[in-house]
Specification:
This protein is globular. Helix 3 packs across helix 4 and helix 7 runs parallel beside helix 8. By secondary structure, it is α/β, with parallel strands linked by helices. The two termini are about 15 Å apart. The strands form 4 sheets. Strands 1-7-6-4-5 form a 5-stranded mixed β-sheet, with helices on both faces. A 4-stranded mixed β-sheet has the order 8-13-12-11, with helices on both faces. A two-stranded antiparallel sheet has the order 2-3. The site of acetyl coenzyme *A has 21 residues, from helix 2, helix 6 and helix 7.
């Protein structure tokens, strides 16, 4: 069996924080952030939560798919920033949307999490075990960001995106996913309580920005080439490259390395910043709702993040 995306949804927090507002909090400027990252603003949760955004994105995806919650067999939520550990966010979403027949669990693969969750869903579908799976990326990163660290706080934002992944007859499109734990120190965040220590800066995201940048511009083109080869597709046969929205310069570099026009790499990081595992499904939903995705088009989804972990998948739009 093959997986297809039959509906998408997203949820963006109402509160918008632009670069000017951030430059009143740390020593930075709108010009620096735009030039180095392409980001102009981000949205952060106030009334919302990682769970509420996940549930809202899921409801919108179900509506878009024309499906009832009872038809969902499984809910997979990718998150690194949920305010609940127990029960898992997937079970909270199940309760809120009334998906009474669904099994559910959470996945942590940082910014690559939506790709890993999508590939997990694909395998359940390929095995014939499930037919309809809700795959969600939801992040409240503003709780994990050190708002005194200008190297990281300018980058991240909150939000959620969801896709209903449905089985259809046909050969499975193969994805790829990799990790390199030896480079894990490039991007870290510890839990609040470790051994006898008091919470400190390590309980916020810490990043070697240049190391992550170098890793992304090398590994993302490689993994895209890998999935193209696995599926016997050429770059010219791909209509859209929907990539993790971390930094505009990373996307431009990936496009250059692949020798593909940047117009095939849609971006919304200007408005939302880096929303970790929510960025790919939020962008997918935006493209879907704008009517940019046409039946028969081939789409590459790719992401990278802490771990270090990276991956890519190909979908054919229906
Ligand atoms: N405002 C002004 N100056 C700054 C800021 C800021 N916000 N941040 C750093 N600087 C300064 C530095 O202190 C440094 O000053 P110095 O030359 O006097 O020492 C100078 O700017 C250059 O710093 P770099 O770190 O070399 O800047 P760079 O061009 O590499 O940009 C950035 C930094 C934007 C973080 C970039 O490295 C990047 O985007 N890396 C990838 C990060 C990423 O994508 N992370 C997400 C991974 S996904 C996940 O799993 C969460």
């Amino acid at each position: 069996m093959r997986a297809r995306i039959s509906g998408t949804g997203s949820c963006i927090p109402l509160h918008r924080l632009d670069n000017e507002a951030i430059s009143r909090m740390v020593d930075t400027s709108d010009a620096w952030i735009r030039e180095r990252t392409g980001i102009e603003s981000r949205h952060v949760i106030c009334e919302e939560s990682t769970v509420s955004m996940a549930a809202e994105a899921a409801e919108r995806a179900l509506q878009n798919a024309g499906m009832d919650p009872e038809e969902i067999d499984m809910i997979l939520v990718s998150t690194i920033s949920s305010e609940v550990i127990l029960p898992c966010t997937a079970c909270e979403v199940q309760r809120r949307i009334g998906a009474v027949n669904a099994a559910g669990f959470d996945i942590n693969a940082a910014c690559a999490g939506f790709l890993v969750a999508y590939q997990t869903a694909e395998m359940y579908i390929a095995s014939g075990m499930y037919r309809n799976i809700l795959v969600i990326g939801s992040e409240g990163l503003s709780h994990l960001v050190n708002w005194k660290d200008r190297g990281t706080c300018i980058l991240f934002g909150d939000g959620a995106g969801a896709a209903v992944v449905t089985s259809q007859s046909g050969e499975r499109l193969e994805g790829a996913c990799h990790s390199d734990g030896k480079k894990g120190t490039a991007l870290t965040c510890r839990t609040r309580y470790n051994e006898d220590e008091m919470p400190d800066d390590r309980c916020y995201m810490q990043m070697d920005g240049q190391a992550v940048f170098r890793f992304a511009v090398k590994k993302v083109p490689e993994v895209i080439e890998e999935v193209l080869e696995k599926n016997h597709l050429s770059k010219d046969e791909i209509d859209w490259f929907i990539l993790h929205q971390a930094n505009g310069r990373i996307l431009e570099s990936v496009a250059r390395r692949l020798e593909v026009g940047i117009e095939k790499f849609p971006m919304n990081l200007q408005e939302y910043g880096n929303t970790s595992s929510a960025s790919v499904p939020i962008l997918l939903d935006e493209m879907n709702r704008k009517g940019c995705l046409k039946p028969g088009q081939n789409i590459v989804m790719a992401a990278f993040g802490a771990g270090l972990t990276w991956g890519a998948s190909i979908i054919q739009w229906q």
